[in-house]
Amino acid sequence: MSNDQLVADLADKARKASRTLITSGYSKRQGALLAIADALEANMGEILEANKLDMERGKANGLNSSLLDRLALNPERIKDIAVGARQVAALDDPLGIVLRQRTLSNGLKLTQVTVPFGVIGMVYEARPNVTVDAAVILLMSGNAALLRGSSSAQASNEVLVKVMRGAL
């Protein structure tokens, strides 16, 4: 399968997932974020082991110290990521907010309401925390995503996605 076909297939799956997210209520999305936070803490050992592999590979490939620092996860950083997920879960529902309304001279009522975009694409470097941060924000806002982290964080990202999927 070509890269173009792979991306097209993933985008189609994300589009279908976005339809499910649009219909999921606030409490369901909020519960998913809290479950993700709990799962991150519960699976900290597995996450740290995967990150250790990424760090070893990064050092062997000559990543500079600032990239290695961004790549590194430790118990405190994982707890901070979980805290961030809980903070997002505590926010008000961003969907269904009436931004403005007006009635036209012919009686037609226009209402602008917040809704999800649908599918968001993101590319980012050597920051496994962004995998979770982006997923959490996108879930809360009812959006699906195609996330593309760098190969330097591959093991960490794979485990983080597995942990989040398991929480859902």
Characterize the structure shown.
With about 170 residues, this protein is an alpha+beta fold. The chain has a single domain, classed as 3-Layer(aba) Sandwich (Aldehyde Dehydrogenase, Chain A, domain 1), CATH 3.40.605. It has seven helices and four strands. α2 packs antiparallel against α5, α3 (about 45-60) runs antiparallel to α7 and α5 packs parallel to α6. The protein is elongated and about 70 Å long. The model has no long low-confidence stretch (mean pLDDT about 95).
Which structural traits does this protein have?
elongated, 168 residues, alpha+beta, 7 helices, Aldehyde Dehydrogenase, Chain A, domain 1, two-stranded antiparallel sheet
Secondary structure topology:
Elements (H helix, E strand, L loop, with lengths): L2 H21 L2 H17 L1 H17 L4 H7 L3 H15 L8 E6 L5 E5 L5 E5 L4 H13 L3 E5 L5 H14 L1
Parallel strand pairs: 3-4
Antiparallel strand pairs: 1-2
What is this entry, summarized?
The chain is an alpha+beta fold and 168 residues long. Helix content is 62%, strand content 12%.
Q: pLDDT under 50 segments (min length 5)?
A: none
Q: Describe the global form.
A: elongated
Helix-strand sequence:
HHHHHEEEHEH
Average pLDDT number: 94
Strand order of the largest sheet: 1-2
- Tell me the domain tally: 1
Q: Determine Rg (CA atoms, Å).
A: 19 Å
How many individual β-strands? 4
Helix/strand-derived category reads: alpha+beta
Query: What is the level-2 CATH architecture name?
Result: 3-Layer(aba) Sandwich
Tell me the strand percentage band: 5-15%
| Structure annotation, total helices | 7
CATH homologous superfamily classification? Aldehyde Dehydrogenase, Chain A, domain 1
Kindly report the CATH topology.
Aldehyde Dehydrogenase, Chain A, domain 1
Largest sheet: 2 strands, antiparallel
**Helix fraction?**
55-70%
Name of the CATH first level: Alpha Beta
Distance between the termini: 29 Å
